Amino acid sequence: MAPKKKTPSSIKNPDLYEELRDDGASKSKAARISNAAARDGKKTVGKRGGSSPAYEDWTVADLRQRAKEIGLSGYSGKRKSELIDMLRNS
């Protein structure tokens, strides 16, 4: 039996907090999202996210810059479709 994780007492939606942490969110991000969801509802919080054009609309230079920003390697010789695949699966 796995030990139960300790959730901070200030968390208003501990199940969502743990789900976000399991998905790789930082403690502060998971806390912020779970508390906002408990306060305002999940649908409201989900609509707040920013927007960005689809990778298909980006230039190859922009895709390479994004790959560099997130620490990927081996992107310099890739075609646009390969860059998109790398970014989506990283």
Tell me what the structure shows.
- Residues 57-85 form the Rho termination factor-like N-terminal domain.
- One of its GO terms (biological process) is DNA-templated transcription termination.
- The protein has 90 residues and is mainly alpha-helical.
- The chain is built from five helices and no strands.
- Helix 1 (14-22) packs antiparallel against helix 2 and helix 4 runs parallel beside helix 5.
- It is elongated.
- The relative contact order is 0.10.
Give me the count of strands. Answer: 0
Question: What order do the SSEs take from the amino end to the carboxyl end, as H and E?
Answer: HHHHH
Distance between the termini: 31 Å
User: Structural class, from helix and strand content?
Assistant: mainly alpha
Number of helices: 5
Q: Give the overall pLDDT as a whole number.
A: 85
What is the helical fraction, as a range of percent? 40-55%
Q: What overall form do the CA principal axes indicate?
A: elongated
Indicate the low-confidence ranges by residue numbers: none
Report the C-alpha radius of gyration, rounded. Answer: 18 Å
Strand content: under 5%
Sheet with the most strands, sense and barrel status: none
Set down the secondary structure blueprint.
Blueprint: H1 14-22, H2 27-40, H3 42-47, H4 60-69, H5 80-88
Helix pairs in contact: 1-2, 4-5
GO biological process, one term: DNA-templated transcription termination
Protein name: Rho termination factor N-terminal domain-containing protein
Region (Disordered): 1-55
